[in-house]
Write a structure and sequence with these properties.
This protein has one domain. Helices cover 0% and strands 54% of the residues. It contains no helices and eight strands. A five-stranded antiparallel sheet has the order 2-3-5-6-7, with no helix packed on it. A three-stranded antiparallel sheet has the order 1-8-4, with no helix packed on it. A hairpin with a 6-residue loop joins strand 2 and strand 3. The mean pLDDT is 93.
């Protein structure tokens, strides 16, 4: 079953010596008690944060005003993966 995706903590940081900025925020979803949340990106990608079947999945995304593309920050590698949308589902484990 699909569940709401929320965002919080939007920060905008100027890039020194330019007119550009970098924005970051947390995107999350929380399943009902006893269920787990599963986050999915477009293009098809699942964040590592899904791995332990958590009740809440929370990720950090960032966007530079230079390219205007939101990117998932893969923890712990620090790699950035471009994403166009986020959706979440909830389900029972096992």
């Amino acid at each position: 079953m699909r569940i709401p995706v929320t965002s919080s903590g939007l920060t905008v940081t100027p890039i020194p010596n330019t007119m550009d900025t970098t924005s970051t925020m947390t995107v999350s979803c929380t399943a009902a008690n006893g269920l787990f949340a599963f986050m999915i990106f477009e293009p098809e990608l699942n964040p590592r944060e899904n791995a332990n079947l958590p009740q809440t999945v929370a990720i950090t995304v960032s966007c530079s005003s230079v390219d205007m593309v939101w990117k998932y920050v893969d923890v712990p590698s620090g790699r950035l993966q471009a994403i166009t949308s986020v959706r979440c589902n909830e389900a029972a484990s096992g």
